[in-house]
Amino acid sequence: MSTSTSYEAKFRVWRGDADSGELRDFTIEVNEGEVVLDIIHRLQATQAPDLAVRWNCKAGKCGSCSAEINGRPRLMCMTRMSLFAPEDTITVTPLRTFPVIRDLVTDVEFNYRKAREIPAFVPPAGLAPGEYRMRQEDVGRSQEFRKCIECFLCQDVCHVVRDHEENKQAFAGPRFLMRMAELDMHPLDEASREGLDRQRAVQEEHGLGFCNITKCCTEVCPESIKITDNALIPMKERAVDRKYDPLVWLGSKIRRRRSD
Ligand code: SF4
Ligand code: SF4
Ligand code: FES
């Protein structure tokens, strides 16, 4: 039922599939306190029953309702209608960086593929999980990165892949570069024991060098993770330090010669 603060909003919503699509106009009721996802649900209930949209929690925690609202990557469930003036037209489109399946639903498989390419944490030898000890500073850093809800808004906005499909092969994207930074900075990770070199891999296999620290990823993160300042820039420094550290360089040469 309408409240006294209801109004009719103008919405433009992208409808279509992988082959073709277009923006469709709707006029739809908005009530006080609602978010964009409420309006999309009302559209489904009243005017477009087959409108495809992905969502689960409606609480900003599952990361599935990502879309572009007036061109900006956002969670639909966390975007209040009060952000907009009643006379505004609100345009809702699917994430541009990933292939459309239907309407507002995109195929985000790229991200799962990149996640699978990152070797997991290698626990310290000889210690049971309850015996791990870390400084609070290291715990805090991991906790910040682990707030990630995998909404992939940062992946969507990053210009390295947004306008360059061909870069997807060689670039993991901010979410996964951050994951690699987390593991590399983890004081208990013993990746080298398994023959893994995370600093080499992040540069040579996952494209850290493509990132020119524009911070667009940080700006859209709904968890306010400082992706660029706290993960990508430190990871660049670590990888570069290593490259220009003469002892590290000599060590890697000797190791390479031994394995030849
Ligand atoms: S800071 Fe790097 S990873 Fe983030 S959006 Fe810019 S280029 Fe992409
Ligand atoms: S880092 Fe932020 S924007 Fe990127 S996937 Fe995680 S929560 Fe979403
Ligand atoms: S529905 Fe879960 S984050 Fe929006």
UniProtKB/TrEMBL annotation:
Pathway connected to this protein: Carbohydrate metabolism; tricarboxylic acid cycle
Gene3D superfamilies named in the record: 3.10.20.30, Alpha-helical ferredoxin
One cellular component term from this protein's GO annotations in UniProt: plasma membrane
Record protein name field: Succinate dehydrogenase/fumarate reductase iron-sulfur subunit
GO BP annotation list: respiratory electron transport chain; tricarboxylic acid cycle
One MF annotation (Gene Ontology) recorded for this entry: electron transfer activity
Signal sequence region: none
Domain 2Fe-2S ferredoxin-type, first and last residues per copy: 9-96
Keywords annotated in UniProt: 2Fe-2S, 4Fe-4S, Iron, Iron-sulfur, Metal-binding, Oxidoreductase
Lineage of the organism: Bacteria, Bacillati, Actinomycetota, Actinomycetes, Kitasatosporales
Cofactor(s) of this protein: [4Fe-4S] cluster; [2Fe-2S] cluster; [3Fe-4S] cluster
Pfam families tied to this protein: Fer2_3 (PF13085), Fer4_8 (PF13183)
Family membership noted in the UniProt record: Belongs to the succinate dehydrogenase/fumarate reductase iron-sulfur protein family.
Organism from which the protein derives: Streptomyces hoynatensis
Lineage: superkingdom: Bacteria
